[in-house]
Amino acid sequence: xxxxxxxxxxxxxxxxxxxxxxxxxxxxxxxxxxxxxxxxxxxxxxxxxxxxxxxxxxxxxxxxxxxxxxxxxxxxxxxxxxxxxxxxxxxxxxxxxxxxxxxxxxxxxxxxxxxxxxxxxxxxxxxxxxxxxxxxxxxxxxxxxxxxxxxxxxxxxxxxxxxxxxxxxxxxxxxxxxxxxxxxxxxxxxxxxxxxxxxxxxxxxxxxxxxxxxxxxxxxxxxxxxxxxxxxxxxxxxxxxxxxxxxxxxxxxxxx
Length: 256
Known about the structure:
Blueprint: E1 5-10, H1 15-24, E2 29-35, H2 38-50, E3 54-59, H3 65-78, E4 83-86, H4 97-119, H5 123-129, E5 132-137, H6 150-170, E6 175-182, E7 185-186, E8 193-195, E9 201-202, H7 203-215, E10 220-223, H8 225-233, H9 239-246, E11 251-253
Parallel strand pairs: 1-2, 1-4, 2-3, 4-5, 5-6, 6-10, 7-9
Antiparallel strand pairs: 8-11
Helix pairs in contact: 1-2, 1-7, 4-6
């Protein structure tokens, strides 16, 4: 009998998370969808069940470390989780210095700490089974820091570095770790962004890129390729050149 595959995705109620859930839903897959909005989660779950997956939902804020840990361990005991995608993230309102400061704390709490709260509780169980895959959703902003959103850039950069370090640490145990770095994606969160969004991509296309990268166990799944190349090269050029190159990417983010 073919073993079932356990997949857990946070931030699964909309955007990339919802698109990934649908892309991975299939016969023989046990999906666990995590988000705060139960109604939206149920809609995504229904679409995934139509594709043949067994689906469970967990309504939880990834910042709630203790509660999330308990739910994850309970779910893993009932249905071993083979793939975790820590996707939940925020890009908060920009504006004056006070707004940027407030946003920075919130972005670090969700984007960095919330992701660690998601993946770290499952490491011991995956070590014990000698297999598993942990994916964290960073951003191309990890390579090209955005002056209008330093908190977002910092949280995603820290997450990327953590993921790459964890990849090397866990590889001998049979656990794969992948860092996902999307560019501009057409989502509800992205719709609050007021600025130039080159190579804008649908969530469905982004999900397809991510699935392929996970299957190939790429260390960094960065896309779209032209923007990823520019972002990665920006870390190598002199600061005046980098500043000039990023000057066209000024933006604001509307309030929720």
